[in-house]
Amino acid sequence: MNSESRIITMTTDFGSQDYYVSAMKAVILGINPSVRFVDISHDLPPQDIMAGAWVLKNTAFLYPPGTIHLAVIDPGVGSSRKPILVQIQDQYFVGPDNGLFSLVLDKKESCRMIELTADTYWRKPVSNTFHGRDIFAPVAAHVSTGIPISNFGRPLPELTTYRWAKPISDEEGVQGWIAHIDRYGNLISNIPEKLIKNRGNQQEFKIYIGNTILKTISKSYASVPDGEPVAVLGSSGMLEVAIYKGNAAEMLGVEKGAPVSLILQKPVS
Amino acid sequence: MNSESRIITMTTDFGSQDYYVSAMKAVILGINPSVRFVDISHDLPPQDIMAGAWVLKNTAFLYPPGTIHLAVIDPGVGSSRKPILVQIQDQYFVGPDNGLFSLVLDKKESCRMIELTADTYWRKPVSNTFHGRDIFAPVAAHVSTGIPISNFGRPLPELTTYRWAKPISDEEGVQGWIAHIDRYGNLISNIPEKLIKNRGNQQEFKIYIGNTILKTISKSYASVPDGEPVAVLGSSGMLEVAIYKGNAAEMLGVEKGAPVSLILQKPVS
Amino acid sequence: MNSESRIITMTTDFGSQDYYVSAMKAVILGINPSVRFVDISHDLPPQDIMAGAWVLKNTAFLYPPGTIHLAVIDPGVGSSRKPILVQIQDQYFVGPDNGLFSLVLDKKESCRMIELTADTYWRKPVSNTFHGRDIFAPVAAHVSTGIPISNFGRPLPELTTYRWAKPISDEEGVQGWIAHIDRYGNLISNIPEKLIKNRGNQQEFKIYIGNTILKTISKSYASVPDGEPVAVLGSSGMLEVAIYKGNAAEMLGVEKGAPVSLILQKPVS
User: Which residue on chain A is closest to B4 by alpha carbon?
Assistant: First the structure.
């Protein structure tokens, strides 16, 4: 890969009204003017680390080899939380060690983890409130020029990680939770497709969410009439409940964290 | 044109908090790493097909020849609605056949329409809930590499189209509707400049909107004092009502779909 | 610098639901297809010129030499306000002469100022409501191709400028105001670091904001427990009051323009 065409993605909670994103891009362009940016999101809920982890999980490994993912949701900036650089397979991740990379680690085990200590690659003076501009952006830019990642600091034995609550699966069925609500109001659970496929296909079942009961998992949102609820295996590989041409979160009154149960029906003996 | 520098624009209702836009860009970069993105909008109202059509109408034909417009407002994803690729003059459009391209067709008659059937150009497996990532993005990427559009499927005789309600013009004047309200609260009608120029210049007239009456069409928003309503022929070529340094939708209490009348004044005999 | 890789940044109040930003980019790409865009912000509060000035001040001079900053917050479009092109050090600025460049001028004295009069570089016909598309975008594009800036019009002796209210500093302390509230609710004052460093370090002081009193300036947001208020010298070089992992504007009930006082404590005699 030509180092000039390296891609840096950005995932932050900086919003779109301030100069914070621009400052990071300017610093990067000053180091590697040929880098290409892809904004993954800057509108993640302020300080919601797991929202960033979720977005990275669903998209990072779709990028071409050598892509650098700069992720800054960093309420602990200036504290003792470490700045890190992680290589997972052929992708690079730069940001704070606060759990932001939990779900990409979850997906790929083989990785190299570096604590950023080589301040020669940082912008000076380093502020205590904006490491995105002063540490993470310049490090991502220098990585994009092909500097070996071992130059940036010292090996780190493990990262701070959080995990989504795992769904509970037993002979009665599966108990999970709503892990994410998207812009359409679609309710995305933490129940992965494989847990459903192993269980739900064998016998009849009911899905309970809010005050709604669904008896089938449909092929698409459009499998039901307008305004009706529908369960699908969504594009993120999780069980999802939506309203066709409507907002399920609003119409079913369901919030993030609400329980979802898939209960197997016992055959009448 | 060098195929490596092809531009892909994106117009969606995906919002900016989710991974959906990023997933499409990642898939495209995996196929053509040199493509250049322009985000037209990702914040269109969820499932508002005509809002997407309006944006495309006002901007698509300003782009350089060979630009590919990837547009995904797709409530019917996974249903029988067709995935399509359309060439109109020197611009390409990829997305669902649900009316999204109605207003660009309206503008340019000569076009080639293809139903996407050649799944060799799709991402596998194809989900039922995210054709943006699995069909439209990879097709747009392959179009950007120079593959002839006839390779992507079979000719389609006509598209699903919707039209804006046409204004009614008679000897009394012109009756139209507010077709769009922009971020400033400017009220953009469906009355085109030419209908005004043919009629309004000849004699005195009054424009009725909400509980306001305007007697002139001004040159610019700034033709009136701060806080006053003003009618102009806007940048989209339509009659528009604004408040100088204010929000007309809020201050006049006018919503999308509200009537606007231009009534010619009869000379006193 | 290769003219093909010139960067154009964009700072507007156009929002992200309309075609306005896209129309400007399309016009630019039609003139210089190789230009690279960086969106600084399109979500500035409608018609808030000083919000644009603040963003430009904090970010423009971080960009590589030759960067062109296209800034359009332009309530007076179509009035007598002048369209301008300004070179300040190695950066270029294009937009309306309405105060938008006040704070970059404030920072750098040596500059060349041009009133845009050479309409050969404009898009025709020029609308009265969208000079962003018809004047500023094409001028920025032509600047990016290397045309000397004197070609675009005539020298302008001075710009329209506004200044932030200056903080008042006397033997009692410093009296300032909240000049900006960011997405996190952080309260950014107009009191620069140097005014604090000269005064606050010498003796004990109290900072009054809303109904809160702070007795120290901390190193980082994370210097206090979750939910506690904290004063820091922020990344913009100004005194800033935040709540660690919280929203200071909401929790302290403080709005833009609210007073902030740093009062020096007299030693007990």
Answer: A5
Contact A244, A228 (CB under 8 A): yes
Q: Which two tokens stand for residue A229?
A: 């609820």
- Among B36, B102, B107, B112, CA closest to B68: B36
Residue of C nearest to B44 (CA): C17
Check C75 against B222: CB less than 8 A apart.
yes
Of the CATH numbers 3.30.70.60, 2.60.40.10, 2.40.30.90, 3.20.20.150, which one belongs to the domain with range C168-264?
A: 2.40.30.90
Nearest-CA distance A122 → chain C (Å):
14
**What per-residue confidence (pLDDT) applies to B196?**
85
Q: Measured between CA atoms, how close is A269 to chain B, in angstroms?
A: 36
Gap between the Cα atoms of C13 and B40, Å rounded: 15
Write the pLDDT tens digit of every residue in B102-130.
999 865 567 899 999 999 999 999 999 99
Which pLDDT score, from 0 to 100, does residue C108 have? 53
**HSE value, Cβ hemisphere, 13 Å, CA-based, for A92:** 28
Tell me which chain C residue has its CA closest to the CA of residue B247. Answer: C46
Between CA B58 and CA B139 the distance in angstroms is: 24
C204-214 pLDDT, tens digit per residue, is: 889 999 989 99
Residues of C within 8 A of B38 (CB-CB) are 22, 25-26, 29, 37
* Interface contacts (A, B; CB < 8 Å): 96
**A77, A127 Cβ separation under 8 angstroms:** no
Please provide the average confidence, as pLDDT, over all residues in chain C: 92
Instruction: Provide the edge-to-edge strand list for the sheet that holds C36-41.
Output: C36-41, C7-12, C68-72, C91-96, C83-88, C111-116, C153-155
Chains in contact with B via at least 3 Cβ–Cβ pairs below 8 Å = A, C
E strands present in chain A: 7-12, 36-41, 68-72, 83-88, 91-96, 111-116, 153-155, 168-170, 173-181, 187-192, 205-209, 212-214, 217-218, 229-233, 238-243, 259-264
Helices (H), C155-235: 193-199
Domain range annotation of chain C: 3-155, 168-264
Distance from CA of B139 to the nearest CA of A (A): 16
Query: Which of A43, A182, A219 is facing B78, going by the closest CB pair?
Result: A219
Q: Residues of C at the B interface (Cβ-Cβ below 8 Å)? A: 13-23, 25-27, 29-30, 33-34, 37, 46-47, 75-79, 81, 127-130, 133-134
**Is the domain C3-155 a CATH 3.40.50.10790 member?**
yes
| Per-residue pLDDT reduced to its tens digit, B68-93 | 999 999 999 988 999 999 999 999 99
List helix spans (H) across chain A. 20-31, 49-59, 102-107, 131, 137-144, 193-199, 248-252
Q: What mean pLDDT is predicted for residues A232-248?
A: 94
User: Which subunits count as partners of chain A given 3+ CB pairs below 8 Å?
Assistant: B, C
Measured between CA atoms, the residue of chain C closest to residue A36 is: C36
Mean pLDDT of chain B: 92
Quickly count: other Cβ atoms within 10 Å of residue B194's Cβ: 10
Going by the DSSP 8-state scheme, the letter that residue B17 receives in this structure is S
Q: Do domains A3-155 and A168-264 have the same CATH topology?
A: no
ipTM score assigned to the predicted complex? 0.92
Q: State the pairing for strand pair C168-170/C173-181.
A: antiparallel
Q: Is C16 in Cβ contact with A26 (below 8 Å)? A: no
CB contact under 8 A, A38 and B34: no
Could you give the CA distance from residue B211 to residue B242 in angstroms, rounded to a whole number? 14
Q: DSSP code of C91?
A: E
